[in-house]
């Protein structure tokens, strides 16, 4: 391969001009959905309904319907929660961290990834709420002056979760909306339908593309990115605290916070790539979401996959090195005990298979990439399963050891969460610009003054 | 102004800098030797702190070089030679590490046969913590670092004359492998030389903790060198605030990362409150060590955090220079805090001794000297690098 | 109406970013202050070309971030250390490391949300869909792919002819005059609007009432309470005798049980002798138990002054001659067996405590019925100088 390093790789292929970019991005919203769209939607809604039924039955009969037992008190629902929160990390990572690192290739994918963040956090939020057993009492999770005179336990990581997830959801939503305002403005000015125009006007807040506004807007975007970055880290860190502050072997280990964050980025990117592969194909966005972008994301997947692998090995090594019997037993039990199958699925999907991304050909091949990222998604779900279930199923007392088997309600809820997620994603693709119009315009060829940044030299 | 017609002309470093570094090094070495004869154990522990400091800057610099290659960053290309110069310290580690290996009995509790014989846990760790394996590991790691230093920097220098873009491609691949090696090697270096000083204690995040400190130290050293050279006109006229801002922002990010890792480790151990883990922090809360523990938070996190919080402060050369020196000092304190309380005689609190101050003097002299030697052999700018022009034209 | 009065601004559009930067420099250089540049995306270097000051938005973020941090910390400190202190996991009340996560989240939440709100409401003065620029050709082109600059009529230097010539010299694509939209008049007292208001009021108040007074007290299911289980003091169909509580097997004897053979007898006093001497400790025990079990009816000093305010008949005083003549055994028997409407206290008060109560009653009786001779005796004990 011969790359010219003296030139930046173009962010938008095909030398599109501003009007063409806008046309391309607005296309899905201007056209009526076709049959394929309805087929996709009906599949995801079916999955959603399966989940809704499982959820309804869970509400009615209680969480005894699940497979949770003693000592495996945390199982599928916690696994799903951690899985979805993890998926939700890619969006803010792409929009905030890559923004601060000035990785301009993020512009093509940031909007979509942010939307996925919001939907994933919505999916995640369901699980702890129903895991309380009586979800109608979840109001007690918030510190409000009540007739019992009691306050919530601020020293509990489960409560930190309440704050972390709600803050993360709110900030992601705000961040997303701020990014959408100029696009609503553009949509308002190009649409011919009166109803659409009213809706876009309301959401655009009367945006005028004024540079006096852009100046504050860019500052605000910078500030939001600056806050969102540590926020992303904090959310999965706090999720890891749920496990790590306890004294259960396999849960209590100091590497959990960075390890969970790396895993979250890993799984989040895999999910974003999975969805983007379809989106760029269906909506003809190959020029905006280029193969270069996907390759870069695959590199991130490769590197975070290695970080996760590093954490697996560190845990194993220190479990042996510590000389604590319970620790070393647990790790042997993970790898060779009753859940060895789950452990090896996790290792092969998360550490071994992504190694294929060392090859440039594979990083740039759509079908192979799709297979690998789906494996990563599966592997990351199993990682949370391994952490949660295998640490509990053989606890300190051998007399209470028990094997966890999920019931159909557990599986129904898992399917339902995917249905919920993809239903929202599918609806999103037709109702809002899936790529940021103004940001992509800003990085198009010839969009910036030729004396780029000349103002600094005056 | 335009850089299309930019021609690099080498500008020599001031001659008295060499003299200065030689004098400092000589004084440091003499005092260090005296220290060794006065109190060997104390001197070894003190020496270990300085040794780890040099490891931090040397390996950290090579990591920054590799990071630039794999991230495809262009802003740092014109200053890439600075970390390359610092990483020349790596082959020297072969010599520097010898006192630690020879006198391992003074440093490491697990090297005491009679102690291991009575201790079940240490017996369990013996397959890892034994002198033979320890020495092999140490030399393998230093060997790997030197090897990667040698090939990466050779390719980079070759490019100065050949301007061959394939060398960049080669270095990108090498960097990817180096970062793997780096992750594993610094983790086990940290475990071997610092965590195993207290052989009963363990923490899975330890390698990451050391990594976060390494990067801060390396970035601080690089920034300091860049600003000192910039002040004397070595980087004119192309260097702008934006280059400094990028350095400042990276430092800011990594002090936050350090704080995050340090807090995670502390919180988890404090919260679970298991005796086999907490005693390590309790030792660092004994007597006047408590002041150092608090000081560490202030010095390594709070002060630089607020100093670099706002956007203008990240590109203010004076402030950056000050913070760079400050952070080098902070990383030194961090290593001091990790290493010194493990001395048996200081478990209950720090006992002052002049010995602690002589090794850093030698270290500073050595680092400056190595920098000067590297500078003489090399161009200050990687003039053959295809990304150089992009890097010079870099704007936010 | 005069056309000038209606004019909002004169605007020009350009094709390339270079032209617009140049135009902005010229306009700001000519001393205009009320002008604006509209571009479909932020153009680099425009802030300097327009001579805009750096955004002050950061101050809002800083202040609100600090506020978030301190509010969170103070609240956690107040609720867990002052209002309802509770030891959790052996940690101190003010467990600072454990408060850091929530403090951090609150900092981020308050800082980001207020930054965005301040930006939109204060800095942008949005939402504003009635701005004269909306629905103009100019707006449509600048939100699409053109770059526009406009000079407002309220600029001090504004002069229609001069501005038009100035803009024309910049060689724009075209020049547009933008006018204020005609004012629309609204009347609040329209029946439709009032009806709408009433409707909203009804829905809001009804919704509030329903959710606060009804919804909050609804439980979707009560399986846990309704399950088949035995409830103390309640009947049950599970057992033949219909009782929910089980009786012990006939002949069961509780541990440490000593039978009381005089149950139901009127006066078995001869055989019952007090095994305890009235020591200080014993009387203290008696007082404690008396105050708990006896005093509600008999009064603290055995005067028969009940604190039950007539809810239960008052017992007679224990200072009557008859009561003082009771033997210790008689008191013991009455406590154990009950008398008249006084129930048996056998199950509440242990045997030793019963004897202690008896001793205490003796103390009360003695104290309430002191004679002059007692006084002299006491004086003697206390020392003769107090006697007179």
Core attributes:
A: 458 residues, mainly alpha, 0% strand, C: 388 residues, alpha+beta, 2 domains, 4-stranded antiparallel sheet
What is the terminal separation of chain B in angstroms?
17 Å
Strand content of chain C: 5-15%
For the biggest sheet of chain B, the summary is:
none
Tell me the number of structural domains of chain C. Answer: 2
Number of helices of chain B: 18
Give the averaged pLDDT of chain C, no decimals.
86
Number of strands of chain C: 4
Order of helices and strands of chain C: HEHEHHHHEHEHHHHHHH
How many strand units of chain B?
A: 0
How far is the N terminus from the C terminus of chain C?
A: 115 Å
The pair of chains with the biggest contact is: A-C, 80 and 76 residues
Query: What is the mean predicted local confidence, pLDDT of chain B?
Result: 91
> What are the segments of chain B in which pLDDT stays under 50 over at least 5 consecutive residues?
none
> Structural class given helices, strands, pairing of chain C?
alpha+beta
**Per the principal axes of the C-alpha atoms, what is the gross shape of chain C?**
elongated
What is the topology, as strand order, of the major beta sheet of chain C?
Answer: 2-3-1-4
Q: How many distinct domains of chain B?
A: 1
Approximately how much helix is present in the residues of chain C? 40-55%
What would you note in describing this structure?
The complex is a heterotrimer of chains A (about 450), B (about 400) and C (about 400). Chain A is an all-alpha fold and about 450 residues long. Chain A has one domain. Chain A has 16 helices and no strands. Chain A has helices at about 20-30, 35-60, 75-85, 90-100, 105-130, 155-190, 195-205, 210-245, 255-280, 290-320, 325-335, 340-350, 360-365, 365-395, 410-430, 435-440. In chain A, helix 5 crosses helix 6 (about 155-190). Chain A is globular, with a radius of gyration of 23 Å. Residues about 450-458 of chain A have low confidence and may be disordered. Chain B has one domain (about 15-385). Chain B is built from 18 helices and no strands. The longest helix of chain B has about 30 residues, at about 40-70. Chain B is globular and about 70 Å long. The two termini of chain B are about 15 Å apart. The mean pLDDT of chain B is about 90. With about 400 residues, chain C is an alpha+beta fold. Chain C contains 14 helices and four strands. Chain C has a four-stranded antiparallel beta sheet. In chain C, helix 4 (about 55-85) runs antiparallel to helix 5 and helix 10 packs across helix 13. The termini of chain C are far apart. The interface between A and C is large, with 80 and 76 residues.
């Amino acid at each position: 391969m011969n790359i010219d390093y003296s030139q930046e790789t173009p962010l938008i292929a095909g030398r599109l001009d501003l009007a063409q970019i806008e046309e391309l991005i607005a296309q899905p919203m201007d056209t009526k959905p076709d049959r394929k769209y309805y087929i996709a939607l009906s599949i995801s809604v079916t999955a959603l309904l399966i989940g809704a039924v499982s959820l309804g039955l869970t509400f009615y009969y209680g969480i005894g319907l699940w497979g949770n037992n003693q000592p495996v008190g945390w199982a599928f629902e916690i696994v799903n929660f951690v899985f979805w929160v993890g998926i939700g990390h890619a969006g803010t990572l792409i929009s905030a961290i890559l923004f601060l690192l000035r990785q301009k290739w993020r512009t093509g994918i940031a909007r979509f990834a942010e939307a996925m963040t919001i939907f994933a956090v919505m999916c995640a939020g369901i699980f702890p709420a129903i895991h309380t057993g009586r979800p109608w009492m979840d109001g007690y999770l918030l510190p409000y002056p009540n007739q019992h005179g009691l306050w919530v336990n601020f020293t509990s990581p489960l409560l930190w979760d309440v704050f972390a997830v709600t803050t993360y959801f709110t900030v992601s939503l705000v961040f997303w909306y701020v990014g959408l305002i100029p696009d609503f403005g553009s949509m308002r000015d190009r649409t011919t339908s009166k109803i659409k125009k009213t809706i876009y006007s309301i959401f655009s807040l009367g945006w005028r593309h004024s540079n006096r506004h852009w100046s504050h807007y860019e500052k605000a975007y910078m500030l939001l990115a600056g806050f969102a970055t540590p926020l992303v880290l904090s959310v999965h860190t706090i999720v890891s605290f749920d496990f790590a502050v306890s004294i259960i072997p396999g849960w209590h280990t100091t590497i959990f916070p960075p390890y969970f964050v790396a895993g979250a980025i890993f799984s989040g990117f895999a999910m974003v790539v999975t969805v983007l592969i379809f989106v760029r194909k269906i909506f003809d966005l190959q020029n905006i979401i280029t193969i270069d972008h996907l390759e870069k994301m695959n590199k991130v997947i490769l590197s975070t996959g290695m970080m996760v692998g590093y954490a697996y090995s560190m845990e194993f090594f220190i479990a042996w090195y510590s000389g604590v019997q319970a620790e070393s037993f647990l790790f042997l039990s993970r790898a060779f005990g009753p859940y060895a199958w789950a452990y090896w699925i996790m290792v092969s999907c998360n550490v071994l298979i992504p190694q294929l991304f060392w090859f440039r050909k594979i990083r740039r091949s759509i079908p192979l990439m799709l297979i690998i990222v789906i494996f990563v998604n599966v592997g990351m779900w199993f990682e949370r399963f391994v952490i949660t279930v295998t640490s509990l199923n053989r606890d300190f007392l051998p007399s209470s050891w028990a094997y966890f088997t999920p019931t159909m309600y557990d599986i129904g809820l898992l399917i339902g969460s995917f249905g919920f997620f993809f239903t929202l994603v599918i609806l999103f693709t037709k109702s809002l610009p899936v790529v940021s119009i103004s940001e992509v315009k800003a990085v198009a060829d010839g969009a910036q003054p030729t004396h780029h940044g000349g103002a600094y030299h005056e | 102004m335009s850089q299309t017609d930019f021609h690099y002309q080498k500008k020599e470093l001031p001659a008295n800098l060499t003299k200065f570094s030689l004098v400092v090094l000589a004084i440091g070495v003499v005092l260090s030797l005296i220290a060794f004869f006065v109190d060997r154990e104390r001197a070894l522990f003190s020496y270990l702190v300085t040794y780890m400091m040099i490891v931090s800057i040397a390996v950290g610099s090579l990591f920054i070089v590799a990071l630039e290659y794999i991230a495809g960053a262009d802003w740092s290309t014109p200053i890439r030679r600075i970390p390359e110069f610092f990483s020349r310290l790596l082959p020297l580690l072969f010599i520097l590490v010898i006192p630690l290996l020879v006198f391992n009995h003074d440093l490491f509790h697990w090297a005491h046969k009679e102690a291991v014989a009575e201790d079940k846990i240490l017996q369990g760790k013996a397959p890892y913590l034994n002198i033979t394996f320890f020495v092999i590991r140490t030399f393998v790691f230093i060997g790997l670092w030197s090897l990667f230093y040698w090939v990466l920097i050779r390719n980079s220098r070759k490019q100065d004359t050949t301007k061959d873009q394939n060398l960049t491609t080669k270095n990108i691949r090498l960097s990817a492998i180096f970062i793997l090696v780096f992750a594993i090697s610094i983790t086990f270096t940290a475990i071997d030389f610092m965590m195993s000083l207290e052989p009963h204690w363990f923490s899975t995040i330890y390698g990451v903790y050391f990594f976060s400190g390494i990067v801060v130290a390396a970035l601080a050293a690089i920034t300091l060198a860049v600003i000192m050279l910039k002040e004397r006109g070595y980087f004119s006229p192309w260097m702008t605030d934006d280059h400094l801002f990028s350095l400042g922002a990276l430092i800011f990010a990594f002090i936050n990362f350090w704080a995050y890792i340090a807090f995670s480790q502390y919180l988890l151990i404090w919260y679970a409150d298991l005796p086999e883990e907490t005693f390590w922090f309790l030792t660092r809360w004994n007597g006047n060590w408590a002041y150092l523990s608090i000081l560490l938070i202030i010095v390594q996190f709070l002060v630089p955090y607020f100093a670099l919080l706002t956007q203008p402060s990240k590109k203010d050369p004076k402030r950056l220079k000050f913070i760079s020196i400050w952070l080098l000092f902070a990383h030194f304190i961090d290593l001091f805090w990790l290493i010194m309380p493990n001395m048996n005689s200081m478990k209950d609190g720090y006992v002052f001794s002049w010995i602690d101050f002589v090794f850093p003097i030698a270290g500073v002299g050595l680092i400056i000297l190595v920098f000067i030697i590297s500078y003489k052999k090399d161009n200050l700018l990687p003039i053959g690098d295809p990304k150089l022009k992009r890097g010079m034209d870099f704007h936010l | 109406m005069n056309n000038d009065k209606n004019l909002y601004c004169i605007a020009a559009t350009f094709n390339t970013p270079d032209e617009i930067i140049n135009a902005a420099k010229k306009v700001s250089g000519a001393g205009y202050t009320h002008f604006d540049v509209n571009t479909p995306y932020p153009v680099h270097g425009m802030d300097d070309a327009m001579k805009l000051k750096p955004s002050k938005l950061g101050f809002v973020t800083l202040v609100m971030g600090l506020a978030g941090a301190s509010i969170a910390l103070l609240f956690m400190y107040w609720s867990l250390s002052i209002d309802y202190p509770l030891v959790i996991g052996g940690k101190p009340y003010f467990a600072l490391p454990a408060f850091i996560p929530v403090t951090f989240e609150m900092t981020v939440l308050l800082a980001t949300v207020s930054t965005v709100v301040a930006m939109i409401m204060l800095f942008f003065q949005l939402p504003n869909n009635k701005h004269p620029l909306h629905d103009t050709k100019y707006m449509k082109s600048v939100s699409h792919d053109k770059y526009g600059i406009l000079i407002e009529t309220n600029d001090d230097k504004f002069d229609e002819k001069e501005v038009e010539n100035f803009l024309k010299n910049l060689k724009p694509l075209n020049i547009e005059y933008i006018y204020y939209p005609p004012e629309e008049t609204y009347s609040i007292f329209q029946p439709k609007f009032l009806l709408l208001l009433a409707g909203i009021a009804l829905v809001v108040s009804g919704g509030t009432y329903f959710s606060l007074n009804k919804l909050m007290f609804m439980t979707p299911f009560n399986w846990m309470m309704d399950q088949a289980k035995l409830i103390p003091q309640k009947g049950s169909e599970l057992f033949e005798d219909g009782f929910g509580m089980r009786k012990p097997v006939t002949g069961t004897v509780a541990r440490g049980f000593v039978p009381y053979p005089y149950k139901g007898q009127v006066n078995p006093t001869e055989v019952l002798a007090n095994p305890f001497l009235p020591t200080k400790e014993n009387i203290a025990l008696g007082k404690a138990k008396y105050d708990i079990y006896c005093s509600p009816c008999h009064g603290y000093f055995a005067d028969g002054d009940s604190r039950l305010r007539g809810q239960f008949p008052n017992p007679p005083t224990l200072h009557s001659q008859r009561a003082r003549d009771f033997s210790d055994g008689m008191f013991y028997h009455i406590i154990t067996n009950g008398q008249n409407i006084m129930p048996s206290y056998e199950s509440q008060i242990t045997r030793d405590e019963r004897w202690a109560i008896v001793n205490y009653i003796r103390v009360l009786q003695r104290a309430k019925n002191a004679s002059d001779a007692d006084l002299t005796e006491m004086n003697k004990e206390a020392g003769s100088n107090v006697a007179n």
